[in-house]
Design brief:
Blueprint (H helix, E strand, L loop, with lengths): L1 E6 L2 E6 L6 H8 L18 E4 L2 E4 L12 E3 L1 H4 L3 H12 L9 H14 L5 H8 L9 H15 L1
Parallel strand pairs: 1-5
Antiparallel strand pairs: 1-2, 3-4, 3-5
Helix pairs in contact: 3-4, 3-6, 4-5, 4-6
């Protein structure tokens, strides 16, 4: 089935089974491999992308459910000031250790800052819940979110 998508500001079409998870369409059909497979059950957050600006687990989202919606992956996030501020903060503070979860962390942080330019610790905790970092870089992640918020102020 031919499915029209808008990914990172570009119109595209993919020929995929309508039940294919968006994650696999991004990775296997569009070669956007920054979005990671972690658990396949929307529990770890490694596969987080934005759909119409909302952080969404792509491993459990059918590709047909995204037709006509704006999909942003980690590859397209830096094209706006919030995404760029988050990415710059991550780099400046050298947040990742293994890095596997970081695209999901960054996507969740950018969605938070797009909605709340000055989050407190409770706001950050709520927004980042469900994005698991097995290396435990949560303190660095919080610091990077606060740094990005300052940059956006």
């Amino acid at each position: 089935m031919i499915i029209p998508l808008q990914v990172n500001g570009q119109q595209t079409q993919v020929d995929a089974d309508p039940n294919t998870p968006l994650l696999w369409v991004l990775r296997d059909h569009l070669n956007l491999t920054g979005t990671k497979y972690g658990c396949g059950m929307a529990l770890c957050g490694a596969c987080t992308v934005h759909i119409d600006g909302a952080p969404t687990r792509s491993c459990s989202t059918r590709v047909t459910d995204t037709a006509g919606k704006l999909i942003t992956t980690i590859e397209g996030l830096g094209s706006d000031n919030v995404g760029k501020a988050v990415q710059d903060a991550w780099i400046a503070l050298d947040v990742p250790q293994c890095g596997y979860c970081q695209s999901g962390q960054i996507m969740s942080a950018a969605a938070l800052l797009a909605a709340n330019k000055n989050p407190n610790d409770a706001d950050i905790d709520a927004a980042m819940t469900g994005v698991v970092c097995r290396c435990g870089t949560y303190n660095a992640i919080r610091a990077a979110i606060k740094r990005a918020a300052k940059a956006l102020a």
